[in-house]
Predict the structure.
Amino acid sequence: MDCQCCNKKPARIRICDVEENNIGEQINVCPDCFNLIKRYMFDITKPLMTTPDVIREVQGLLTAGETSLATLPEPGGITPVGKEPVPVCPDCGMSLSEFRARGRFGCPRDYEVFAEHLDPLFERIHDVQPARHQGHLPEKTAGEEVVQRRQTVADLRKRLDAAVAEENYELAARLRDQIAELEAQPKAEERS
Amino acid sequence: MNEAFENFPHILGEWLKGTGPDSDIVVSTRVRFARNVRGFPFTGRASDAQRSDVLKLCEDALKQVHLDRSVVTLELDKLPELKRDVLVERHLISRELASGEGPRGVTFGRGEMLSIMINEEDHLRLQWIKSGFDVDRAFHALCKVDRALEKTLPYATSDRYGYLTACPTNVGTGMRVSVMVHLPALTLKENIDQVFKAAQRMNHAVRGLYGEGTRAFGDMYQISNQTTLGRSEEQIVEAIKAIVPKILEFERQRRGQLYTEDRSFVEDKVLRSLALLRSARRLNVQEMMSHLSMLRLGVDLGIISDVPVRTLNELFILGQPSHLQESEGRVLPASERDTRRAELVRSRLAAGSN
Ligand SMILES: [Zn+2]
Ligand SMILES: [Zn+2]
């Protein structure tokens, strides 16, 4: 069965509207469309939409070609198709309007994602123009080693989980040793 | 780790010693830097697992830096509420960190001049407190810690915006200088509003340290810079060094006026406060702070000579609710706290006890 949203990819997920224990309309969609649909469905800040209404919104997006995460309507609500896309941080999911409502960033990447909206805000808060940093900055490479070690450990952990799942205990033991060695590193440096 | 903590109520921070430049008015100078670790969401958006990773990374980095042999690290989610509140009253952690959730901690040295909060609003809040008005020393001491940490800890920064922080009011240098001042004469003379407005015009804020809104119990205020972006750290230091002396001069002028023009008025106030604190059997915290404030003024004007400023500074902290309860080793109802507070104050102010 084809996805009832994009009518192209095979449908894998069934969405049912439930009203007072009665199962209403059922719609079958593909995982890609479901990812878009989720952004509307699980938004508790907006009035509830029926599945057919959500599907129409998503189909509108698909025809407009607006499906990359950065240009998607924020999880906080629906931007009618054709309107200016609202930036959303791909790392932490923070949208511009959520940032405005909370007054707090979600992660360092937000500063890049919302860059074009920040200067006027910073100029006002800090009473300065241009809103550019003037003070000390650490060297770019400082601490990079820690970041890389963390990334390596995370990768090894994933491989370890996979090895255990495949019951490849020989590999798992080797990976475990590598992880232990990497994690012990800061302490080894400390002793020297 | 916990052994060190047990000692707390008896060893008070260096910054309370009542010395340093302008210590007739300035209690302490605090400099803090907000820092975040690259590759993680800010604390407010981080999962417990991520917070725990950040905590571990920071603790490891702090160990490598060898700040001070006598550094104490406390993991706050493992600490009972009363002990967390003691740390707040001691100015070692913020109320937000005390009442927060998930993996978080604080590291501080024995002198309690350096304290480092982990997983507050930002991953790291480094602060250095000095007794008196001493921005340069506090700033340079904190820079040393920060420069050592940045070698092992990858900070989140950008060329454009400097140090990236959870709140846009801290971005840039992430630096806040706060000077704690005692302004009883400006309060008595009702000049505090003028000070508030003048500071505001120069992008600095003055607010009461205890109490809410315009009510500042104990006449203790905090002056701090409001802007962190577009100015270098040195410029922030220079700005506060330009503003604070003006406020100090204003306060001194009003103190002089009180002493020459309203001598009996101010003597009466100070000596009544001393008599009250030496006799009261029950004292609530606001009452204690407002009379201690008059005593502090009395010491400076030479009306009282047998009470050191350090004792007064310490009573401000030791008489707070959590400190009283911590030294009793249990939670006390308010009425009993008032009795204990009165006992504490009487014993510390008894003639000849200092
Ligand atoms: Zn589809
Ligand atoms: Zn983000």
Q: What stands out?
A: The pocket of zinc ion (ligand 2) is lined by residues A 89, 91-92, 94, 106-107, 109-110 (CB under 6 Å).
